[in-house]
Known about the structure:
Blueprint: E1 2-7, E2 10-15, H1 24-39, E3 45-49, E4 54-56, H2 61-66, H3 71-87, E5 93-97, E6 100-102, H4 104-111, E7 114-118, E8 124-125, H5 128-131, H6 137-146, H7 149-158, E9 161-162, H8 164-169, E10 175-177, H9 179-191, H10 198-208, H11 210-216
Parallel strand pairs: 2-3, 3-5, 4-6, 5-7, 6-8, 7-10
Antiparallel strand pairs: 1-2, 8-9
Helix pairs in contact: 1-3, 3-4, 6-7, 6-11
Amino acid sequence: MIETTRSGEVFVLRMVAEENRFNPTMLGAFKSALDEVEASEGAAAVVITGGGKYFSNGLDLDWMAAAPEGGPSEVVNGLQELYARLVGFPTAVIAAVNGHAFAGGAMLALACDARVMRDDRGYFCLPEVDINIPFTLGMAKLVQAKLVPADAHEAMLTGRRYDAAEALAAGIADQTAPEDQVLPLAIERAQALTGKTRSVVAEIKRVMYREVLDGLAETVSF
């Protein structure tokens, strides 16, 4: 589900599960990959990317529909834990958005510190309003923390699909690039931040995003 490679001091975490949807296996793979980064010594940073058409298409709805009682809640809570871990991660985390980033996948990109987005294909979209799935408190706090109020309002309440140019204008993307440059540019951004002291980075993020982290810590059940 996650292939981990190194480029200098940068750990590249590539999701390799077709649409890269979130289910227990994907969440477990992310935990293992991030554990590996945190267990490493010395300078480091992280880049998260997908492959082909998709960065991530959000929750694995087929798994959710067939899950045993309590399973869907566990996945949503596990996804919130992943977002919280990335928001407060002790190194820089850059998203190389190679394709579509929808719903939970869009929020995965927002949980990172910066986003480099493919400029010729792929949309960023929070479709929850159109698929009748309200945001949890923590997820809403995450979007509102990463986007200015007017853009957060539009993204969350209209379900708008943003292409790369629109995402850049809205502050969703920090940079856009052709497909073959998305990952190298994300790695370049990450490499420039590898020398920061991990404990200091973690504490600054904890203070900056306290409300987001508190919101994501609230468990949900349905």
